[in-house]
Amino acid sequence: MSGDGVRGLRGSAPRDVRGFLLLALLPVVSAGEIAAQTDSVNGGRTTRAGVFTAAQAEQGEMVYALSCVSCHTPASHTGPPFVAAWHGKTVADLFAYIRDNMPKSEPGSLSRREYMSVLAYLLRMNGMPAGREELVPDPEQLKSIRIELTSPPDYIQPR
Ligand code: HEC
Known about the structure:
Strand order of the largest sheet: 1-2
Strand content: under 5%
CATH class of the largest domain: Mainly Alpha
Oligomer: single chain
CATH superfamily of the largest domain: Cytochrome c-like domain
Largest sheet: 2 strands, parallel
Bound molecules: heme C
Structural class: mainly alpha
Helix content: 55-70%
Order of helices and strands: HHEHHHHHE
CATH topology of the largest domain: Cytochrome Bc1 Complex, Chain D, domain 2
Distance between the termini: 47 Å
Number of helices: 7
Shape: globular
């Protein structure tokens, strides 16, 4: 089979090009598959698994209204820029960012509970489902939840 391949490629430019395109696409597909497999092997969860409660996200909406809307609109944390910044990272990364930098005027000024609920609200506004258990400020647990933002059909790129 490999011998045939080598002979077939010689002097056959169109086939070379097709082969090249195929090779260029392959790594993308397999990287995704590997990521999915690793997930189930490690028992790691994604933000699609219901990692916060509905009540927590509602509380987060109030925290957001008090501490964040002076500079932000919810729309600024959804869509392509947010996906580009956070897809594939962990909830621990997003938590660390918010705690260390936000509110920009007074970083770290909220309680851990408030940061958790505002985090839940950010996840909810990105279409993540609520679940039965609260998101808790346990570093190991937050590290084990991957932010999964792009999988269709939930995500439709806004124009
Ligand atoms: C005083 C203004 C101000 C306040 C209040 C503020 N932010 Fe920000 N935030 C910014 C600015 C400016 C940026 C852009 C990055 C930077 O300059 O650090 C940003 C960036 C962000 C980002 C990353 C980019 C994005 O839009 O998703 C997140 C997430 C975020 N803020 C969340 C929050 C949350 C949650 C709160 C409330 C707890 C909050 N911010 C309060 C000014 C503010």
